[in-house]
Structures are given as structure tokens and as C-alpha cells.
């Protein structure tokens, strides 16, 4: 398949940032520890809503493959797309350890949507929208990739003073859960904005749910508080 990127909705600085850390992607005590900790929550939430077994799934911005692999382990036929050679290399290498099958490709969401529209039962795009220059374009691509009646899942960070305090100051500078500079506050997306992107792309927003972190118990949970991290579940009309 031709994976030439004709629509480059990516920030080279963001790609470089995560490429430099790619070798640590599967180290559960590394900079990616939060991803390992939240993955069971987001995986169960997706699976409970769509039943992953037997579904054709695409994970946009798959990185090193943490979510993609876990969905494959639940019986899904998974394609993972990303623009980082190093992250994809780590993802492919980890398949030898997990003995799972994931089709990893270096291609943009926009390009694969143009090549394979309405091909997937489930589309996921998690912790990625806040890192691209044009999140609405990624949302539109996700919508195009979904089959009629298919489900599309997003997760990102809200934009308000509380999210700046918790996700940037708290997580990067005080608790040091993430490397400094991981997030750029101006790129955070309000739920109303993401919902509008989804509706403009022809999706129906079915659920907006928050994800919280307790720094004392060090436990993540899903709930009503969408002030910082949140997830959105959409459906493409049949």
C-alpha cells in the first residue's frame, strides 16, 4: 500500500518529542507510565460499548501500540497508524513478545481515510488530538474511516485553569508524572469544541465521560468530572 503522506496534519516537534522516548514505550515505570495505568480503563470502556471481539478496529496515533495490542488481545482485528517511524518500530518489535497480530502502518489519518473510507467497525483516537495542528481534520478522518453504524472514540484534555493546573503544572512539574513540555495548554480542547468537530464530521455524540486521578491513592477512575481528562463516544449514523 502506498503510504506517502499527502495531507500532513502533524507537528514535527511533537513527532520528534515522542520519537526520542519511543524506546521506553513499553516500560511501565517510564514516562509512559500514565498510559499503562489508564489503558485498562479506556480498554474496558471501549469493549463494554462495542464488544471488540471480531470487530475491525483502527487506532489513530497508535504510538508504541499499548491500546492497539490490548484491543487485539480482546479479539479485534486491529490496524494501528502513526507518523513516527521509531514508535512504529517499537510497536512492531513488541509483537514478538506478545505474540499478537496488529497491522501497523506509517500513514496519516487523513490519507488512510481517503484510501479506505467506511472500512472499520471501531475507530479510536486517544491522547492524540491535543498534539496535532488541526484536530478537526483528524476527527473528520476518523468519521470517514468508520462504517455506517460504527463507533468512534476520542480522548483528550479539557482547556480551563483547572486542567492547566493539574495536567501541566501538577503532572509535569510537581508530581513529575510526565516530562516537562509534554503538553501545550493552548492545544487543549473543550468538550464542546470536540463535540462540534464530531457533529460537523457527521457523527452523533453519545457519551462524554471524565477520567480523574487521585494523587494520594494514585488511582485513575472514570466518572462525571470532565474538567481535565475526558473521553467521547460517537456513532456514525447507519
UniProtKB/TrEMBL annotation:
Gene3D superfamilies: Vaccinia Virus protein VP39. Pathway: Cofactor biosynthesis; ubiquinone biosynthesis. Pfam families: Methyltransf_23. It catalyses: a 3-demethylubiquinol + S-adenosyl-L-methionine = a ubiquinol + S-adenosyl-L-homocysteine + H(+); a 3-(all-trans-polyprenyl)benzene-1,2-diol + S-adenosyl-L-methionine = a 2-methoxy-6-(all-trans-polyprenyl)phenol + S-adenosyl-L-homocysteine + H(+). The keyword Transferase applies. GO terms for molecular function: 2-polyprenyl-6-hydroxyphenol methylase activity; 3-demethylubiquinol 3-O-methyltransferase activity. Its EC number is 2.1.1.222, 2.1.1.64. Keywords: Methyltransferase, S-adenosyl-L-methionine, Transferase, Ubiquinone biosynthesis. It comes from the Bacteria. S-adenosyl-L-methionine binds at residues 42, 61, 82, 126. The keyword Protein transport does not apply. It is an enzyme of class 2 (transferase). One of its GO terms (biological process) is methylation. InterPro entries: SAM-dependent_MTases_sf (IPR029063), UbiG_MeTrfase (IPR010233). SUPFAM superfamilies: S-adenosyl-L-methionine-dependent methyltransferases (SSF53335). O-methyltransferase that catalyzes the 2 O-methylation steps in the ubiquinone biosynthetic pathway. NCBIfam families: UbiG. Belongs to the methyltransferase superfamily. UbiG/COQ3 family. This is Ubiquinone biosynthesis O-methyltransferase. It comes from Niveibacterium microcysteis. The gene is ubiG.
